[in-house]
Specification:
mainly alpha; 2 strands
């Protein structure tokens, strides 16, 4: 069974079936933390004005590069 977790925003209750929906900050804080990290370090994740991703592949590679840098697993940048 698939489970969908979200915060307590009321709009989710209207579109997600109750049997599959868990509303909890404990289930979403990790994802929100990563979203904040990506927006902070990657301009392409902030706004859709001048800095945005035109390629899904470049977005994925940028995120992987950031994660390797943050985890100290990318020796060329150390």
């Amino acid at each position: 069974m698939d489970i969908i977790t979200s915060d307590y925003w009321k709009a989710y209750e209207a579109i997600v079936p109750k049997a599959k929906h868990i509303q909890s900050k404990a289930e979403t804080f990790t994802v929100e933390g990563y979203n904040s990290l990506f927006r902070h370090y990657l301009a392409r994740m902030r706004r859709k004005s001048k800095c945005y991703s035109k390629s899904k592949q470049m977005l994925e590679l940028s995120m992987l590069l950031l994660m390797h840098k943050r985890n100290n697993t990318l020796s060329i940048l150390n």
